[in-house]
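Q: I have 159 residues here and want to know how they pack in 3D. Can you give me a structure?
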Amino acid sequence: MRIFLDIDGVMVPAKSWKRPELLNDGFPAFSTKATHVLENLIAEGTIIMLTTSHKSNFSVEEWKSIFKNRNINIEHLECLPANVGNLSRKEEIMHWFNVNTINDNFIIIDDDKSLNDLPYYLKESLVATSPYIGLTEEHLEIAKTILANQRTSLVASIT
């Protein structure tokens, strides 16, 4: 399974009236709810694909450390390429899918409204969060339903 994961508005709610708490590594703390949901989604072999605008600010090992400092152990972590062309999140994700073949189940967890215009085959895997609230238990159920539907489709296509 692959999780395309944004940070701001997903793991860190974007509250303009309140500065986020920074941990010792200088990166904002994740919400407790979001941490719990992500922990429940990560299974053995899960690949976290960072889509956040911060993705190029840290190496993969630094990102793993950031997650570990927030009690989330990630074995397989990748990042979308640096966004040198200033593409929208939608364009970045579509470009990745156009260049890469994926045979795994996947979900996209993001608060970026441009993703509402994704083609259906990608949008049906979108877990859209509210930027002010972030990832919640309700999103966990949505993600589980999406992944279950993908598994059902995969089994149906094999038989």
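Q: Anything worth noting?
A: Residues 1 and 103 are 9 Å apart (CA to CA). The chain has a mean pLDDT of 92.
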